[in-house]
Please model this.
Amino acid sequence: MNIKPFRLAHCLLFAASALVLGACATTQTGPTAADNAREVEALARRHPAPYDAKQVSDAAVLQAMRASFKDSPSARLDRLDQTPLQAACTEASRHGKALDPKVREQLQAAALASVKYPADGKYLGDWKRGEAIAQSGRGLQYSDPVGTIAGGNCYACHQVDKKEISFGNIGPTLWHYGKTRGQSEEIVKYTWARIWNSHAFNACANMPRFGDAGILNEAQIKDVMALLLDPASPVNQ
Ligand code: HEC
Model:
């Protein structure tokens, strides 16, 4: 698993579960390295080796996370409050188990039902704007001015256009996405729903809910859709 280092600062925006959140916590620029070291020492004293994750209570983990995030008008601490889906996924993963299949199905169905498709029936915007959105990890960070328009930071987890050599691989490559899948109504709607709320297809997927969580607006999602699906997009050359 690899997130490009310079994109790590943007990682908080994309925390889809407490696990991802935990991975991001150490890279936030709020507390200093010395603060973090003190916190780790204190935790180690309270939970001596051999370290057993099950001994650390949820309350202790939440407390450590709250202490290491800095509240700001563009990144409120309420982002640490989990949705029922995130809580279920965290609970399953800390016990090293998959979600109960019935619960998983219910959560995915609810996520799919939450998807809002474009009112005008047009799914594709401008791939050039889409590329800029895919590149940008700005917005919703504690250091961003309030009102900054957020990007999608797709490259943090996906290869998209091959010309960009800096990308992470938490998600699958999206190179040739439209070229290999075509633009059938089914594919177009699937891709829209994936971007709107990825949990509709994989309850515990680590992909942010771009539409559902209000990270990207409808016009921005159309532009990102064009980047993936427009035959003229460099992704499909
Ligand atoms: C934090 C990491 C992360 C970010 C950021 C991210 N994704 Fe994903 N994405 C994933 C993961 C992980 C999957 C696979 C999900 C699964 O396992 O079901 C995925 C899957 C997808 C898929 C489905 C691929 C397929 O083969 O069906 C699409 C489309 C997609 N992402 C588009 C995007 C776009 C567009 C953006 C930016 C707006 C984006 N992703 C940002 C992690 C991410």
Observations:
- The chain has nine helices and no strands.
- The chain has one domain: 1-30+69-237.
- The pocket of heme C is lined by residues 14, 134, 152-154, 156-158, 170-172, 174, 191, 194-195, 198, 201-202, 205-208, 210, 224 (CB under 6 Å).
